[in-house]
Amino acid sequence: MDALNHYLAMGGYWQFVWPAYAIAVVVLVALLVGTLRAVRANEAAVAALDRERPRRRRSARDGELQ
Amino acid sequence: MHRFANPSRFLRLSAAILPWSTAACVCLLVVGLYFALVASPPDYQQSETVRIMYVHVPAAWMAMGTYAFLALASATGLIWKHPLADLTAKAAAPIGASFTFIALATGALWGQPTWGTWWVWDARLTSVLILLFLYLGYMALWNAFDDETRAARAAAILALVGIVNLPIIKFSVEWWNTLHQPASVLRIGGPTIDPSMLLPLLLMAGAFLFYFVTILLLRIRLELAGRKLRTVQFNRARASLRGTT
Q1: pTM for this model (two decimals)
Q2: What domain range includes position A14?
Q3: Does the ipTM exceed 0.85?
Q4: Is B10 exposed, middle or buried (0-12, 13-18, 19+ CB in 10 A)?
Q5: Other beta carbons less than 10 A from residue B72's beta carbon
Q6: Which of A51, A41, A29, A27 is nearest to B221 (CA)?
Q7: B215-240 burial code (b ≥16 CB/10 A, e <16)
Q8: Interchain pair A13, B211: CB under 8 A
Q9: B179 DSSP 8-state letter
């Protein structure tokens, strides 16, 4: 426990070292999550449009077959 | 219509690269953090605060590298009208802004214990702050136009003008008096930094690089889907207008 406390204290500079790493982690994770969400949202919207349009064509072709 | 068609070759390529760049980023990050936070020694002058370097310096390198990449992609878009180049530059901007913000914030946290101040208006710090504003201005300019072609051109011109800032950042520590220390890795005559500190620095820089590649590929996909959405919506609006007349 003492060893852990000693480590976390960072030679008395814990209040500078850990926030520096925390800021980097928060910013990089936020960008990753925001990017993944936006990719999913945009690609879902495109997929919805794609599903909408060929349906018309497919139904037309189905009509020909009948 | 085929002009706006999905560049499927890029999508296939990015899908092939993405798992590898993600894996490389994670591996380098795990090993890099181990060396940065555990296996590397404290500095004889700066004690444990030197560990801030392992996020600060890679973030600052990537902040500048991303800007050079963004400017190069912008130039490609301006000169050759490559349809992916503008979107690539646009995709890189938020990543570069994030790196720049991290470099500034961690720099302040490093400055307080080593210099006794969070911030000084000297050449290095001010020119990096300008880099952040260049990224934010570039992103704002993209959103300021309804016409995507005009937005791309205006943003690309800003990106190319802003490139003069890169040598100013790089050489600011030599041209002007500053609290910021001069380069100790990327310098003529080789690095002056101890190998025990150079190793975690390079590992973390590698992790940042592959983070950039991973996010960039995802964001280009995001922009491609966005462009396709806008095109379809535009065509529909035109079709419905034609229908009413």
Answers
A1: 0.89
A2: 2-65
A3: yes
A4: middle
A5: 17
A6: A41
A7: bbbbbbbbbbbbbbbeebeeeeeeee
A8: no
A9: S
- Chain A residues within 8 A of B56 when measuring between CB atoms: 20
Mean pLDDT across chain B, nearest whole number? 90
**How many angstroms away from the CA of B94 is the closest CA of chain A?**
8
Average of pLDDT values for B162-179?
Answer: 86
How far CA B240 is from CA of A4, B38, B195, B211, B236, in Å, comes to 68, 64, 67, 43, 6
Please state the rounded mean pLDDT for residues B170-181: 82
Distances (CA, A) of B162 to B60, B148, B166, B237: 17, 21, 8, 37
Which pLDDT belongs to residue A55?
54
Handedness of CA B71, B134, B156, A31 (dihedral sign): positive
pLDDT in tens, B29-47: 999 999 998 888 888 778 8
Instruction: Name the domain count of chain A.
Output: 1
